[in-house]
Write a structure and sequence with these properties.
The complex is a heterodimer of chains A (about 110) and B (about 120).
Chain A lengths: L3 E4 L2 E4 L4 E8 L5 E7 L6 E7 L2 E5 L6 E7 L2 E7 L7 E8 L8 E2 L3 E5 L1
Parallel strand pairs in A: 2-11
Antiparallel strand pairs in A: 1-3, 3-8, 4-5, 4-9, 5-6, 7-8, 9-10, 9-11
Chain B lengths: L2 E3 L4 E5 L4 E3 L2 E3 L5 E7 L5 E7 L5 E3 L5 E5 L4 E6 L8 E8 L4 H4 L4 E2 L3 E6 L1
Parallel strand pairs in B: 2-12
Antiparallel strand pairs in B: 1-4, 3-9, 5-6, 5-10, 7-8, 8-9, 10-11, 10-12
Classes of the chains: A mainly beta (about 110), B mainly beta (about 120).
Chain lengths: ~110, ~120
């Protein structure tokens, strides 16, 4: 199984809402990533978790809060977002943080109104 | 500093013709190089990688790429393009000497939109 799953596929939220994005992999990978991608642009790294510990936070605003409850799950909690946060949010995983390729999920299309 | 350049925003090719999507890189050490493809409203799919060894790397869907150290390039190629190859292609690099890279950071090019017309 080389699949990374993400839920929901689409999310529309107001600026005062609280919501969460979920990512799951069952490949035994120990590194997991959150990316933000705007249309026709490369993905921008937000967070890296390695062995369930946060190893990179790319100076992401605190309205984005990651969580790694176990080695298979990665969440991104959203609160008080701005319209400019509307984007495709991608989760990825790799065997370890220093490993080679990353495997990406299909993404969550987020719209902030 | 690490960087990746994809000099063409758009590449157009007729079905059945060979295709090339260009990528050049700049790293301080020996690079780990990757190609990813993204179809509309989908995540990125891994195509191939170069870590070490043979400079010609073969990947998924008939794609290959050639690592050229002297030209610091890693161009993606396919001998005969298909309409279904139309997508956004990203080149990415990891520098083993860069701490960010060892922690998982990939440096992406800006992407090249490939259109294959029938």
């Amino acid at each position: 199984d080389t699949e990374v799953t993400q839920t929901p596929k689409h999310l529309v939220m107001g600026m005062t809402n609280k919501k969460s994005l979920k990512c799951e992999q069952h490949m035994g990978h120990r590194a997991m990533y959150w990316y933000k991608q705007k249309a026709k642009k490369p993905p921008e790294l937000m967070f890296v978790y390695s062995y369930e510990k946060l190893s990179i936070n790319e100076s992401v605003p605190s309205r984005f809060s990651p969580e790694c409850p176990n080695s298979s799950l990665l969440n991104l909690h959203l609160h008080a977002l701005q319209p400019e946060d509307s984007a495709l949010y991608l989760c990825a995983s790799s065997q370890e943080e220093g490993s080679y390729e990353q495997y990406f999920g299909p993404g969550t299309r987020l719209t902030v109104t | 500093a690490q960087s990746v350049a994809q000099p063409e925003d758009q590449v157009n090719v007729a079905e059945g013709n060979p295709l090339t999507v260009k990528c050049t890189y700049s790293v301080s050490g020996n690079p780990y190089l990757f190609w990813y493809v993204q179809y509309p409203n989908r995540g990125l799919q891994f195509l191939l990688k170069y870590i070490t060894g043979d400079n010609l790397v073969k990947g998924s869907y008939g794609f290959e790429a050639e690592f050229n150290k002297s030209q610091t390039s890693f161009h993606l190629k396919k001998p005969s393009a298909l309409v279904s190859d139309s997508a956004l292609y990203f080149c990415a690099v990891r520098d083993p000497q860069d701490r960010g890279s060892t922690l998982g950071r990939l440096y992406f090019g800006r992407g090249t939109q490939l259109t294959v017309w029938p």
